[in-house]
Amino acid sequence: MRLVVDLNRCQGYAQCVPLAPEVMRMLGEEALAYDPNPDVSQRQRVLRAAASCPVQAIVVEVDPPEDRDSL
User: Fold this and answer.
1) Domains identified in the chain and CATH numbers
2) What pTM does this model have?
């Protein structure tokens, strides 16, 4: 799983932080810090955090399973 936050779009509302506190945190009042490669165990929390962003600044890329056939 890969997490990308467009920090130019992010407005620092911090609605994502309580939903994925092990992955995202605020530095000061406006700067978001995040783990770009969170553990797969955080998947649901990260997806909820991304969905909560009012400016849609968070993109979650989920890799397909390794055993899945390529098309």
Assistant:
1) 2-61 (3.30.70.20)
2) 0.82
